Amino acid sequence: MLTIRDADLYYGASQALKGVSLTALKGEVTCVLGRNGVGKTSLIRGLVGHVPLRRGRVEWEGADITRLTAADRARAGLALVPQGREIFPLLTVEENLRTGLGMLPRAERTVPEGVFKLFPVLRDMLRRRGGDLSGGQQQQLAIGRALATRPRLLVLDEPTEGIQPSIIKQIGAAISQLAARGDIAILLVEQFFDFARELADRFVVMDRGEVVMQGRPGELDEDELQRRLSV
């Protein structure tokens, strides 16, 4: 289980997170929702260790990882699929998939077969450069790259952004299959409510750096939830 307790995060004198707390369980999809600029990406940066918390704790599988580096958090089982994908355009698909394997024991430095079962197009394009793929294919590559590290917590930052509907359906199906395995927790940051509603076991709604709503589908007032997401 992932637990974030009373997290405050600052960029200089500007406070981006204010006492944020949430949990994410293995076998479930926890979806963080909110308008642009409310602190969703700052939450992810604090979680994976890209920006230090000013106050609060990050606990993973019973251990306090608040002071671990981003690399050590990755070794502890956290994997990030960043907003904008951030694949390496001049590397091949296979090379992109292998970029995270150095953190694993030498005997495990292979791309799991499950990555290609979720995204068969990646096997067909192993020798193509990442920059030659479509946006949707690059998103599948970014998710596959994260999964190649065999994570126990998968964090996805707006995976539907700029993606065609057919690929969005494939990504949604892949997330559902991963959650159904029961051995991985999924934290999904999303603005597309219809996509999130189909997947989420729990919603966390943010506004101005704070959690303003939290609960399981059916526990929350959907009209109020939609109002919080409208521009």
Query: How widely separated are the two ends?
Result: 33 Å
Please compute the radius of gyration using only Cα atoms: 17 Å
Taken as a percent bin, the fraction of beta residues is 25-35%
Largest sheet: 6 strands, mixed
* Overall 3D form: globular
**CATH homology group of the domain at 2-83 and 151-229:** P-loop containing nucleotide triphosphate hydrolases
**What ranges have pLDDT less than 50 throughout 5 or more consecutive residues?**
none
Q: How would you classify the helix and strand content by structural class?
A: alpha/beta
Biggest sheet, spatial arrangement of strands: 6-7-8-3-9-10
- Name of the CATH architecture of the domain at 2-83 and 151-229: 3-Layer(aba) Sandwich
Helix proportion: 25-40%
Text of the CATH class of the domain at 2-83 and 151-229 = Alpha Beta
Order of helices and strands: EEEHEEHEHHHHEHEHEEH
CATH fold category name of the domain at 2-83 and 151-229:
Rossmann fold
